[in-house]
Amino acid sequence: MQLPAAVIVEVVQGEGGVIPADLDRLRGLRRITEQAGVALIVDEIQSGFARTGKMFAFEHAGIIPDVVVLSKAIGGSLPLAVVVYRDWLDTWLPGAHAGTFRGNQMAMAAGSAVMRYLVENDVCAHAAAMGERLSEHLKILQRDFPQLGDIRGRGLMLGVELVDPSGAPDVQGHPPAFGCLAPLVQRECLKRGLILELGGRHGAVVRFLPPLVITAAEIDQVAEIFSRALAAATASL
Description:
It contains five helices and ten strands, in the order βββαβββααββαββα. The chain has helices at residues 23-36, 105-120, 123-144, 181-191, 216-235; strands at residues 6-10, 12-13, 19-20, 39-43, 67-70, 82-85, 148-154, 157-162, 197-199, 205-208. The relative contact order is 0.13. The chain is globular and about 65 Å long. The protein folds into two domains: 6-120, Type I PLP-dependent aspartate aminotransferase-like (Major domain) (Aspartate Aminotransferase, domain 2, 3-Layer(aba) Sandwich), CATH 3.40.640.10; 123-235, Aspartate Aminotransferase, domain 1, CATH 3.90.1150.10. With 237 residues, it is an alpha+beta fold.
């Protein structure tokens, strides 16, 4: 049997609906790939650089992948992407890895400044604390809005699945996704100055990805706006 060249995984799925990987399974995957000599590639494009309360999301599982794919936050709004990999995967010959737009000096300087800021200001701990604060707000809202289903994620990468409490539950007893409610909530939030993304199955997961420097007062304001938007959206159905 021929082994795969690599296994690619998101530690926290982004567009898939903010689904964090089970940490024990992630550790098991690392053991299996290591024993088989198969490269484990971790996609940290959305979750990297303090977003989940750790510098990288794979740190929650205590593993070390063979390849890490990085982008978005590392550039501080400038276009920058990085692939970090172990020495045994480095088969490039000198001068072979060339390209017109590689090594953009301004983007690389911005990336260095971003990483210094994250470390010097302990942004990881701040993101973890603010994520916990927002998560608690969302759990409180669940008491008044049965349309709020699973609340999940890590740090400041959170998602809430909107569900139809009157719909027929699936085989696991979960109510169905409420895809038509999500864009209504998103629109009501936008009217009130809050930008949210949607993702997941049927586009029914509301995604919270605030700036990592968000304050506690701003977290409270986000929760308040989301509450009022939920009330308006559910009343319009």
